[in-house]
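User: Show me a protein chain along with its predicted structure.
Assistant: Here is one chain, sequence first, then structure tokens.
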Amino acid sequence: MTERDFIPIRIAVLTVSDTRTLDDDKSGNVLVDRLTNDGHVLADRQILPDEQDQIADQLRKWCDNDEVDTVISTGGTGLTGRDISVEAHREVYEKEIDAFSTYFTMISAAKIGTSAIQSRACAGVAKGTYLFALPGSPGACKDGWDEILRFQLDYRHKPCNFVEIMPRLEEHQRRK
């Protein structure tokens, strides 16, 4: 059996914060560094305030953009009043990837114990685009990328990965 060739995918990074700028966005920088070091393409990068409508609108724009395969957001997944990234993501999802939340919680629990229950990391698919919402800490972004996304966004990963099913994400459109 021959090895598969790496397929770089185009990833947009969204930082959700009322206070961060590109100069001090440590979590966004972690994601950009890791995805580009692993050979993927940074398709776009934005920082938006904790406003559900703005976040959902940006996610939809990226889902409509053929130059974006995946979106990773950081921030706004907690429990406080301004934490609305999860609600914005779920407003856009066609299908939720439930096991992402479960697996992320397992990874976090191994590192931060019961504090992991305060995170609402989530993932889904809309218009053939993967959408992932990670917590706003650099450590959580490292865990999300290093322990899950680095593998699932690598076509060479076996036994299966998100990249190999990308062409089929919108097959329901062909059934009409």
